[in-house]
Amino acid sequence: MTLLSTSLIASPSGDTSLNGYRFAVQMRYSLDNSWRRPKKGNVLIAGSPLRIFRLSAVGQSIAESLEQTGEAPSSGQLLVTRLIDAGALHPLPSLESNAPTLSDISIVIPLFARSENDIVRVQNLITEFSAFPQVVVVDDASPIAFPEMPNTNITAHRQEVNNGPGAARNAGLAYVSTSHVVFIDADVQCTHEDICELAKWWNLPQLAVLAPRVKSLNWFQNGAVVAAYEEVRSPLDMGALPARVRAGTRVGYVPSALLMCDVAALRAVDGFDESMRTGEDVDLIWRLDAAGYSCRYEPSIEVHHLPRTTTQQLAQQRMGYGESAALLATKHRGALAPLRVSGWSTGVWASIALGFPIIGGVVAAGTAVALHRKLRFLPDAEKESARLATLGHLHAGKQIASAVTRVWWPIALLLALVSRRARWALCLAAFVPALSDWWTTRPHLDPVRYTLLRWVDDMSYGFGVWKGVVREGNYDPLIPELSSWPTNMQQKSATEV
Questions:
Q1: Which of 11, 145, 186, 287 is the most buried (most CB within 10 A)?
Q2: What percent of the chain has pLDDT over 90?
Q3: DSSP class of residue 218?
Q4: What is the pTM (predicted TM-score) of this model?
């Protein structure tokens, strides 16, 4: 858990622009589920990563308005913009927004058809989206060629050489003449109403990408064990909470299964990286973010994706994702660390793993005391410090267990062969999070098969990571990032607006 402190003062001048943001209409907002304002005072704890905002008297009144009505006065838009950017606040659609309409949106469908079923699925999508100004199908040198289309708003273009999904999307983008484009994979099921509803959430300046929730089709529609697993643990499903998409946050990326994009923004960053066969969607989001654009995830709009149907397909997909980590780490230094925790939390869990739980408890207590000294300005500082420290250590424990079973499992397995204590640690890391998730999500799958599939999932991804780092010679995806939390939080990232 990362904590930052920011001093925020709402501008009384009525200026409603900041860093390119300009709000022309009255907006409504929802609070992030992390939002906490102890004793309704001048301190707000919210965002991803978790931040501490110190509010002026005007800022307090704005926070109260957001909590009670979901609205903010025009004089508070500077504060609102900071909160949105931090992931503490999320905009809601406005009837007066300048969101793109159907006539502003083109559809691009990249296709690599392996069977007639793939062709039929794309033809169904074309029928569904025929009312849009442009529907472009890019056949990426498929074994089964997509049929030519009549000279209408629906066109098909065949690539002579298969260069991957990123190149196919870029090829389709070149034909787009509207202000916005929606990229849809051939195995996604959605309707034109879904696209129109998603467009209503396009309500922030500098917004470049808006993504819906991509859920796996229900298991009973496919009758497969793997599909039942993916129903609750699909790598394309970013969860039920809205988010500002950014590396190192709760939603660090969104998949390209369905993306609504600003055409000018995509062209400004040269679109997808055609050298990447996997991870090109992650790379695009991070490059847009670095260029000053905003990317958002809106789970209230749901579309569906065909799940894997065999364990082999699942393993191959996850391994491919893992292989992209090294190349992404080369392009985005520090963004692919398998573990981001504080040195204090590392000390707590290392002490427990080495058989010294009392020392671990002492370190945890010491963290709370040290944090209390830094957070004396908080209401109920002692209680809040203990709470934040506890949550931080629990979150770190979950991250460490994930890193052990997902990326570091070859090392952990070797240690388990020679150390009884390492065997116990590996078993706890492998069983406790998996069974906890099974209990929380309650999939249509028994805990034994769910746990086994989770191991296949994690180990396949980890194998791909090791394969990628050896090929690229970049070992950053294997190296943890340890912070010095708790830091002097009154001095770190102090900003006045």
A1: 186
A2: 65
A3: P
A4: 0.88
